[in-house]
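Narrative of activities, Objective 1.

The group set out to show that a structural description can be obtained from nothing but a protein's sequence at a throughput compatible with the screening campaign. Below is one input-output pair from the validation batch, recorded exactly as produced.
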Amino acid sequence: MSDEAIETFACELAGEIEEAIQSDDGSIYSEKEFTRIVLDRLGDEGAIENPTLLWQEGNFGRTNYKITGYSVPDDEERLILVTTIHTGELPPRALTRDEILSALQQAMKFYECSCKGLHTKIEPSNTDASELARYIYEAREQISVLRIVLLSDGLTGLRSIDLKKAFDGTRILVDLFGIERLQRILGQGLRRDDIVVDFSADFGGSLPCLKASSGNADYEAYLASIPGALLADVYEKYGTRLLELNVRAFLGLRGRKSVNAGLRATIRDLPHRFLAYNNGIVATVDAMELEDHGNGQFGIKSVRGLQIVNGGQTTASLHRAKRQDGADLDAISVPAKVICVGGGADLDEMVAAVSKSANSQNTVQPADFSANDPFHVAVDKLASNTWLPDGKGRWFYERARGSYGAAELKASFAAAQKRRFAQETPKERRFSKTDLAKYLNAWAGQAHQVSFGNQKNFQFFMQGLKDEHPDGFEPDTTWYKDFIAKAILFRATQSIVRTKKFAAFQANIIAYTVASLSWSTGGRLDLEMIWTQQAISSELHKLLEGWVGKIDKALRKTAGNRMVSEWAKRVECRDALRELSFDLPEKLPPELNQARAGVRTLSRSRTRSSELRP
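Output recorded for this entry:
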């Protein structure tokens, strides 16, 4: 990674922050806007699961604390707190040790104070922070891992710090996302870059293995036996992020005849037979460091970008047995095949193929591996061939990670082509697979699924698409134009919500506002008009401006004492907000004219979500 690449990325990010501040779409404070933009993008990449921006600083007795965001992963045994150091300096400078320690300590103190009852001392006006502090207080016995993420536009190094048991038995992990690491993940698209396992440093030595691949292969494969305690420890550290490329979720332990119940029994009663009974795991890594022991024997010193593409149930079961049953895993060994993709192989394509093959013994549908799913290929083709009404531009579907940047780079070699590319497909008309799923699921009324974050919502979308169209769905030009209209509507709502500068939960407000418009009109919006104008009307913009505040209040009211961000994920929340009624102006927005009959009884007009899907 060159200094020039980091500086270029830092300049582009600084420009994006300044543009957002000037546009009134974001905060007037650079540090807040930096945090918002980076959190959004790390969420998109899956580096942080469904992050929420939350700026809170103060004191509890003589203790000062500060956080700038948080995330509660699905397993609820871990918590992520975010803190920020924004220098605003170009070129980026290295942060001092004292700067880093101070920021980390303030975030850690928020957790410690919350465990001691901080929610009773926070001013009532700060309900978002109070809800988080209350959640921590009530869940303090269940939270086993606290991950503190430091975001910065300064240089911090690429390291992570594992403090093991630090406060009240909680394991504390520190991730430093300085500008060089952000450039690796956000600039290069290395979404698994921060998953690092250092066997030598953390587990007392390299992992013995045998090389199994031939010399002319475009990958390297190694066979190893991984100690069960080591595998459980890695899962505790990274959780389900290790399983992102695994097509099956952890299915639980209910039922004596279930696979996981059998795993649990073996772990508990026959740990010495685990190796004989279990098929083991298949893992991929983006990079690995080896030491040669001679005679064809090697040791894996460290790996980066670890993904368990088969054996997720085995891994999660080991962790659960240790965590909940107090099982001794010292006698357990897990057979493992570790594949490092390199050479001329395409990383994502190779990993998807390995995952698909490794899971072939179970019923796995092609839609589970969506990178080259026919639906997305068809959308890509439509985006390339469907021009705007003025015939001068198109939208760009970034179906493959980094494809927009590659196309932009290709066009940059000639000045005329560069100008043409920028005019025809500007960045503001770019959308990704997760964007597509977000826009469609919000309009389909599945705002609770959107509230899980981009990665999880995409899984929901693909599963829904497969369930509703088991023989496949091939979109046409009419469908595509309607989709772009929904994208424009979603982004207009997003701009309204950001301009209103709600303290938190903006993503939830946006999703539920779009869903409410869909519910209220029965899905009868003049999408063709939005496509033709490539914008929503000023009248619809004004109407949505009046709705977003009501959605915010409704989310908070229906949540009660629960965290809004977690409540928004529940079907009960979706159903509660679906019953809201809205006042309409005497003169309806033009997009609603064709739905006039339906909008006379907005609160009663309801359409099944499946009718609004593609």
